[in-house]
Design goal:
By secondary structure, the protein is mostly beta strands. It has two helices and eleven strands.
Length: 147
């Protein structure tokens, strides 16, 4: 099967994501976390443990990091346009991440979103789940906004 490359980001372009999925888009069902934070932001999380994710921060000072729930993961949103773009967690020295599928350009053709309830898991089980599901090949690059 061929890889699926997708691009997206926040509304103002401060945070840009480029991701590669290992399967066709239709084989992915974004996960809608039922916690109050994700519900209020309308997030639907997408990840591929065998895929890759590259994030460009055009102005790192304009990126908000917010920890909620068990306080283990960082939710990254743009401070300029307020779009929630991704969530990251460092586990055993490795960065894992999932992307809000609603920030991707175009209509990728994903399967219908499914509900997820990670808040019902204990912290160790959350980290284990994230290691299994989230992107493990993650690169975040800060770009000089004056360049």
């Amino acid at each position: 099967m061929s890889a699926t490359a997708l691009r997206g980001g926040c509304h103002c372009g401060n945070l840009v994501v480029d991701l590669v999925l290992t399967q066709p888009a239709a084989s992915y069902a974004p996960r809608c976390c039922d916690c109050s934070f994700c519900r209020k932001h309308g997030a639907a999380w997408l990840s591929d443990a065998r895929g890759s994710l590259r994030v460009v921060q055009r102005d790192a000072a304009a990126v908000l990091r917010y920890r909620q729930g068990s306080g283990q993961a960082d939710c990254l949103a743009c401070a300029r346009c307020a779009v929630l773009v991704l969530v990251t967690c460092e586990i055993e020295g490795r960065l894992y991440a999932a992307v809000n599928a609603r920030v991707l350009d175009g209509e990728p053709g994903f399967a219908s979103a499914q509900s997820a309830s990670p808040q019902r898991l204990v912290p160790d089980d959350k980290r284990s789940r994230w290691q299994q599901l989230w992107f493990a090949d993650v690169h975040i690059e800060a770009v000089d906004p004056l360049a």
